[in-house]
């Protein structure tokens, strides 16, 4: 019901051209872990708030007794989180790991063995991604961050790391090509030319892929602007009912 209300609001508002020009500056001030039966608000690796089955609230491990009416507000809050965050996490992670594997395969094809520097650098990229977004078979995780700047994370931070990974492996590839030349295996000039062309193609494809990903995330964040505003209001209502919850304010609207 929450999702339908959010999307209906968005469709109505999107008819105004000004909406597309305005960015919704929403910040998640804590990390979130979402499973089928639990929602956990985490801080420095510790669970501070836990919602079980969308109807039971625990703060710092202590169960908070709620009336039937208050439980409805808690359920609205839980459903608001479930209707937005998992899709953002899925969108952020979909295709990125596959893209990293493709880069690895292309670069491996330039030499007889995978450059160790490439493997190490791609591990850095994966770690940076998983520090922000993580999805498993039965859970979603999103770190504290500004949702209006997700696109910057991909077009700047991740893009820079991937470029470093690819171009940082050039030295190792050249060493491999040099060894091949010494042993008279193939024409080194042709292989170097081919390598340069492949690197250019990889760089362009990386930028296109990441720009597309950033645009998708930016559009989704804007689409969810009203949903997140509604979630923030529901959170405020819940904090009125349970004042101790205010210490773990999740959704913060900056504009």
Structure description:
- This is YggN family protein.
- It comes from Pseudoalteromonas caenipelagi.
- It holds the Pfam family DUF2884.
- Keywords: Signal.
- The strands form 2 sheets. This protein has a 7-stranded antiparallel β-sheet with strand order 6-5-4-3-2-8-7.
- Helix 5 (about 95-110) packs antiparallel against helix 9 and helix 6 (about 115-130) packs antiparallel against helix 7.
- It has one domain (about 25-255).
- Helix content is about 60%, strand content about 15%.
- With about 260 residues, it is α+β, with helices and mostly antiparallel strands.
- The chain starts with a helix and ends with a strand.
Provide tags for this entry.
single chain; seven-stranded antiparallel sheet; three-stranded antiparallel sheet; 61% helix; elongated
Please indicate the percent range of residues in DSSP E strands (runs of 2 or more). Answer: 5-15%
Low-confidence stretches: 7-22
Oligomer: single chain
When the domains are counted, the total is: 1
Alpha-carbon Rg, integer: 23 Å
Percent of residues in helical segments?
55-70%
- Strand/helix succession: HHEEEEEEHHHHEEEHHHHE
* Order of neighbouring strands in the sheet with most strands: 6-5-4-3-2-8-7
What does the secondary structure layout of this molecule look like, with pairings?
Layout: H1 2-13, H2 17-21, E1 26-28, E2 31-34, E3 38-43, E4 46-52, E5 56-59, E6 62-64, H3 68-82, H4 85-93, H5 96-108, H6 116-132, E7 133-135, E8 140-142, E9 145-146, H7 150-168, H8 170-182, H9 188-223, H10 225-241, E10 251-253
Antiparallel strand pairs: 1-9, 1-10, 2-3, 2-8, 3-4, 4-5, 5-6, 7-8
Helix pairs in contact: 1-10, 3-10, 5-6, 5-9, 6-7, 7-9
């Amino acid at each position: 019901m929450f999702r339908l209300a959010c999307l209906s609001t968005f469709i109505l508002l999107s008819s105004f051209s000004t909406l597309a020009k305005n960015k919704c500056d929403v910040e998640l001030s804590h990390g979130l872990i979402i499973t089928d039966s639990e929602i956990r608000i985490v801080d420095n690796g510790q669970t501070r708030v836990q919602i079980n089955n969308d109807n039971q609230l625990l703060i710092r491990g202590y169960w908070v007794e709620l009336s039937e009416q208050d439980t409805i507000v808690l359920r609205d809050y839980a459903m608001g989180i479930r209707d937005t965050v998992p899709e953002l996490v899925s969108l952020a992670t979909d295709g990125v790991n596959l893209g990293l594997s493709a880069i690895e395969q292309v670069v491996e094809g330039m030499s007889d063995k995978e450059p160790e520097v490439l493997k190490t650098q791609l591990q850095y990229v994966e770690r940076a991604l998983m520090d922000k977004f993580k999805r498993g078979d039965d859970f979603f995780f999103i770190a504290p961050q500004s949702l209006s700047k997700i696109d910057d994370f991909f077009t700047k931070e991740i893009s820079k790391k991937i470029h470093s990974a690819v171009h940082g492996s050039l030295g190792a590839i050249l060493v491999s090509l040099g060894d091949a030349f010494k042993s008279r295996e193939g024409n080194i000039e042709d292989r170097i030319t081919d390598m340069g062309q492949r690197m250019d193609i990889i760089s362009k494809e990386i930028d296109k892929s990441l720009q597309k990903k950033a645009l998708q995330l930016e559009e989704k964040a804007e689409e969810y602007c009203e949903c997140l505003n509604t979630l923030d209001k529901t959170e405020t209502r819940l904090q009125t009912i349970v004042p101790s919850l205010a210490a773990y304010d999740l959704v913060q609207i900056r504009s």
